[in-house]
């Protein structure tokens, strides 16, 4: 992580408090700013207040399950562009397809993935999201850093 700059914010939403805290501590040790929520309802509220760079989301939770939480996150203007990584015990392919179709950036099965691999996937999703944002900015007419403005190019000046 970059030293001195703002930390990458990660929200961990899981009803397993021990697992939630373990991931949050692991992320903090890696230089992330990590917060937790123990159900979908609290996760939604915290996502809007905290505006994390990425959300780790369990599917089987009380109050609002992970699929519904994901759907709400992706339809809420403040959170729709935040990448969501599903971190779940559900191993069925139909759940993976459903989660990815609903807008998840990745789908991780808890029993098949070590915490270090989860951190690596978070970094990959954040990097991918940054590249997507840069491309969108360029596509929408934003200037590229260090680009020479068209009116200052030597070829253009000679034609005048």
Summarize it.
The chain has 160 residues and is of the alpha/beta class. The protein has six helices and five strands.
SS summary, helix count:
6
Rounded Rg:
19 Å
CATH class category: Alpha Beta
User: How does the helix and strand content classify structurally?
Assistant: alpha/beta
What string gives the helices and strands in order?
A: EHEHEHEHEHH
Flag low-confidence runs: 144-160
CATH superfamily label: Response regulator
User: How much strand content do the residues show?
Assistant: 5-15%
- The side-by-side strand order for the widest beta sheet comes to 2-1-3-4-5
CATH fold-level topology: Rossmann fold
How many strand segments?
A: 5
At CATH's second level, what is the architecture? 3-Layer(aba) Sandwich
Descriptive report:
The chain is α/β, with parallel strands linked by helices. It has a single domain, classed as 3-Layer(aba) Sandwich (Rossmann fold). Helix content is 46%, strand content 14%. It contains six helices and five strands. It has a five-stranded parallel sheet, sandwiched between helices. Helix 2 runs parallel beside helix 3. The longest helix has 25 residues. It starts with 8 loop residues before the first strand and ends with a helix.
Fold blueprint:
Layout: E1 9-13, H1 17-29, E2 33-37, H2 40-50, E3 54-57, H3 66-75, E4 84-88, H4 93-101, E5 106-109, H5 115-139, H6 154-159
Parallel strand pairs: 1-2, 1-3, 3-4, 4-5
Helix pairs in contact: 2-3
Comma- or semicolon-separated keywords:
160 residues; alpha/beta; globular
């Amino acid at each position: 992580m970059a030293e001195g700059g703002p930390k990458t914010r990660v929200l961990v939403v899981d009803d397993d408090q021990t697992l939630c805290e373990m991931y949050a501590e692991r992320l903090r040790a890696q230089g992330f700013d990590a917060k937790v929520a123990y159900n979908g309802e609290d996760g939604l509220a915290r996502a809007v207040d905290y505006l994390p760079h990425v959300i780790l989301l369990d599917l089987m939770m009380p109050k609002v399950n992970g699929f519904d939480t994901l759907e709400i996150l992706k339809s809420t203007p403040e959170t729709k562009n935040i990448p969501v990584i599903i971190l779940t015990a559900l191993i069925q392919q139909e759940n993976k397809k459903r989660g990815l179709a609903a807008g998840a950036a990745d789908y991780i099965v808890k029993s098949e993935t070590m915490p270090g691999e989860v951190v690596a996937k978070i970094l990959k999703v954040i990097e991918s999201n940054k590249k997507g944002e840069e491309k969108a900015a360029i596509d929408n007419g934003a200037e590229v850093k260090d680009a020479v403005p068209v009116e200052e190019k030597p070829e253009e000046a000679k034609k005048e």
